[in-house]
Each structure stands twice: as C-alpha cells, then as structure tokens.
C-alpha cells in the first residue's frame, strides 16, 4: 500500500513538473542582438516586403529618393512582423536601392538591437552594407554602423514611420 501511494505521488509530481515546464516559452526574446556580417548574409533570399520604383519626395536625397529611375527593394529577415506595432529585438531589415545606369547601388540595414542601445529611437541600429551583405567600412577601416549613423539622419527620417521606424510593414 505504501509503495502504491509513493508511486502515485511520484507520478503526480512528475505530471505537475512536466506541465509547468511545457507551458514555458522555450525561446525567450533576447534582450540584445548585436549584428555582424553573418546577420545580413543572403538577404536577397529573405521576404521581399516592398518594391518601390521612382522618386519619393519624402526621402529627399536619402536612398536616391530624387532619382526617377531608382528601384528600392526592402527585405525582412525571417519575414519578421511587428507585434502590437513594435518589432521584436533581433528584427533585421535591408533596403537595396539601384538604378539601371548603375550610378545608384546602395545597401542599407536596420537592426532592432535592444538593451537600451538607442533608447530615444526604439533601440534601432543603422548600417551601411556592401552588396554581399557585409557591413561596409569607411576609409579608416571602421564599420559604418551605429545609433547615429549619417549624423542621426536615419533616426530622424525613420522616427516618423507609423510602425516602429519601418515604412514598409
């Protein structure tokens, strides 16, 4: 009788532990995501969320917004979508701007870094990229990335987007 009670008690404890464990999120959202060259690899195979052709007066000179022949393609890694209007930490977006004459070939990226990296601008980090997805470097060899890339121009323009600094979705 005592062994039976112990057996059923053990099963009950195991069942409670199993149920409690299975209800927990196995992959909690990271608190910080620091991008590297591998982050942007093969970006042309990601979800193509938007293709915009021609001038865009709201862009001004950014992303060749004043070029009537430019095509801008916006890619989202893992087809990431906002949750309640906010993109989760680790969201990666790449924009490729190009024109047929080859005078425009610009690759830019934005990553939701988190951990109060850029707290005034929802923790987004901005990037200039090479065509292969590597983070571009300036003439001194420093990576072209950061909260205030282009003297804060990225922050200022994207702050008016309706969905967490993204104009595309």
UniProtKB/TrEMBL annotation:
Residues 1-24 form the signal peptide. PROSITE patterns: PROKAR_LIPOPROTEIN. It comes from the Bacteria. Keywords: Signal. InterPro entries: Cytochrome_P460_sp (IPR038142). The lineage of its organism: Bacteria, Pseudomonadati, Bacteroidota, Saprospiria, Saprospirales. CDD domains: cyt_P460_fam. This is Cytochrome P460 domain-containing protein. It comes from Aureispira anguillae.
């Amino acid at each position: 009788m005592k062994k039976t009670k112990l057996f059923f008690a053990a099963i009950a404890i195991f069942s409670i532990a199993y149920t409690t464990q299975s209800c927990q999120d196995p992959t909690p959202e990271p608190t910080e995501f620091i991008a590297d060259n591998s982050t942007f690899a093969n970006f042309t195979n990601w979800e193509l969320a938007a293709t915009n052709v021609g001038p865009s007066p709201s862009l001004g000179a950014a992303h060749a917004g004043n070029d009537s022949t430019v095509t801008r393609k916006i890619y989202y890694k893992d087809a990431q979508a906002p949750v309640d209007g906010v993109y989760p930490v680790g969201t990666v977006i790449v924009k490729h701007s190009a024109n047929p004459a080859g005078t425009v070939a610009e690759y830019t990226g934005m990553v939701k870094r988190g951990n109060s990296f850029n707290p005034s601008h929802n923790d987004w980090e901005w990037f200039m990229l090479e065509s292969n997805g590597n983070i571009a470097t300036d003439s001194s060899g420093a990576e072209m990335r950061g909260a205030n890339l282009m003297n804060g121009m990225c922050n200022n323009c994207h702050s008016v987007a309706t969905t967490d600094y993204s104009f595309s979705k």
